[in-house]
Write a structure and sequence with these properties.
CATH class of the largest domain: Alpha Beta
Helix content: 40-55%
GO cellular component, one term: cytosol
CATH superfamily of the largest domain: nicotinate phosphoribosyltransferase
CATH topology of the largest domain: nicotinate phosphoribosyltransferase
Distance between the termini: 26 Å
Structural class: alpha/beta
Protein name: Nicotinate phosphoribosyltransferase
CATH architecture of the largest domain: Alpha-Beta Barrel
Number of strands: 15
Strand content: 5-15%
Enzyme class: ligase
Shape: elongated
GO molecular function: glycosyltransferase activity; metal ion binding; nicotinate phosphoribosyltransferase activity
Radius of gyration: 28 Å
Family: Belongs to the NAPRTase family.
Largest sheet: 6 strands, parallel
Number of domains: 2
Order of helices and strands: HHEEHHHEEEHEHEHHEEHHEHEHEHEHEE
């Protein structure tokens, strides 16, 4: 019932789908799991009933909580745990030649039908030394599950916690967008980060593959390369833009934008604040607005934010307004984000008063540029006008802490509790 409620069961076949990542197979484990499995089998202990707990010893990032992630992928693995013939051939090549043939016949028959999994619901706030998973089953099988289960939960819980911490410092009202794919540790890290940042409280991702796989809302506009690829408005060939309601057309949207730029330059609220703006930037903004008039959000820091980027954006936004469209806002990717966001907001409000455009002053301001908990906290203390944050490197790489440090410990065998003793008291564990 739980698996079906979580969307794991295919409605047509009733079968739990396999792991999202095709690399998650029974071979995604450490070699010593197979050497132990063989030793259990050789000793006739492989079917003894064992109980293992998976937990962590300390909250990450010096914090007071952890967000549990990765359970769904664990269920998918367990439900589809089966060795293929080429898997068994590779295991045979990897183990000492003295290993008996019957062990490989045992592996051929192996699955997790005798394994029971008890877990805290995914997305729950959890704490150290409280088992996230309890796995019961034949000891050799459960031992083979150790490494993949730890792998699937370790990063998932770490990045979900990192996302939740960013949400906490940003506040509930701000939009958080995960921008980390290009900086993540490979495609696996990028896909996992998008999924678990969303679980941890982010609103959207730039990662198209994650959007398709997990239904996460997508966000994205353009880069500095798009802005710098234009030389002048004369490059724009198709200049026609239909009005929002379709009742009319502007035959020369480029000229309409230029008209508005002239009006802004003469406006009382802007007099003396800027001179000639960068025309190649204006061409890029105009071209982008022609392509996406309903979703116009511009990156305004390619040249000069307040002397070019913001005035150029406003000229395009006001031209769109003439045709019934409403621009989304701007993105700042460099400079003093607190100061620039406040100055941009003042400029927007000035345009609203000057030209009587309702809610122009409320347009969205998005900030990016290597943001993390500390920089967002600093922005809050300075005072700012940022509405949304695009966060990448520090979020998805979990820069402040490399791993959660999950462990997998035997706590019971054949109804007898077991304990690990160690000179390091933090590693002593008894739970049953």
């Amino acid at each position: 019932m739980t698996a079906k409620a979580n969307g794991l069961v295919d409605d047509h076949s009733g079968v739990i789908a396999g792991p999202t990542n095709p690399m998650v197979t029974p071979l995604l484990t450490d070699l010593y799991q197979f050497t132990m499995a063989y030793a259990y089998w050789k000793a006739g202990k492989h079917n003894e009933r064992a109980v293992f707990d998976l937990y962590f010893r300390k909250n990450p990032f010096g914090g007071e909580y952890t967000v549990f992630g990765g359970l769904e992928e664990c269920i998918r693995l367990i439900a589809n745990f089966k060795f293929k013939e080429d898997d068994i051939s590779f295991i045979r090549e990897s183990l000492p030649g003295s290993s008996e043939d019957d062990f490989y016949n045992y592996l051929r028959r192996l699955d997790c039908s005798d394994v029971e999994l008890y877990a805290i619901p995914e997305g729950t706030v959890v704490f150290p030394k409280v088992p996230l998973l309890r796995i019961e089953g034949p000891i050799a099988v459960v031992q083979l599950l150790e490494t993949p289960l730890v792998n699937l939960i370790n990063y998932a819980s770490l990045v979900a916690t990192n996302a939740a911490r960013h949400r906490s410092v940003a506040g509930k009202s701000k939009m958080l967008i995960e921008f980390g794919l290009r900086r993540a540790q490979g495609p696996d890290g990028g896909i996992g980060a998008s999924k678990y940042c969303y679980m941890g409280g982010f609103d959207a991702t730039s990662n198209v593959a994650a959007g398709k796989l997990f239904g996460i809302p997508l966000r994205g506009t353009h880069s500095h390369a798009f802005v710098s690829s234009f030389m002048s408005p004369h490059e724009i060939i198709e200049k026609t833009l239909r009005s929002f309601d379709g009742s009319s057309s502007c035959e020369d949207f480029v000229s309409l934008v230029q008209t508005w730029l002239s009006k802004i330059q003469r406006a009382n609220s802007c007099r003396g604040s800027f001179g000639e703006t960068n025309q190649s930037e204006l061409a890029a903004f105009t071209s982008y607005a022609l392509a996406f008039p309903n979703n116009f959000l511009a990156l305004v820091d390619t040249y000069d934010v307040m002397r070019s980027g913001v005035p150029n954006f406003c000229a395009v936004a006001l031209a769109l307004h003439d045709l019934g469209y409403k621009a989304v806002g701007i993105r700042l990717d460099s400079g003093d984000l607190a100061y620039l966001s406040c100055e941009a907001r003042k400029f927007f409000c000035g345009m609203e008063r000057e030209f009587g455009v309702p809610d122009f002053g409320k347009m969205s301001i998005t900030a990016s540029n290597d943001l993390n908990e500390a920089t967002i906290d600093a922005l809050n203390k300075q005072g700012h006008e940022v509405d949304a944050y695009g966060i990448g490197t520090y979020l998805v790489t979990c820069y402040a802490q490399a791993a959660l440090g999950c462990v997998f410990k035997l706590v019971e065998i054949n109804d007898q509790p077991r304990i690990k003793l160690s000179e390091d008291v933090t590693k002593v564990w008894l739970q049953s």
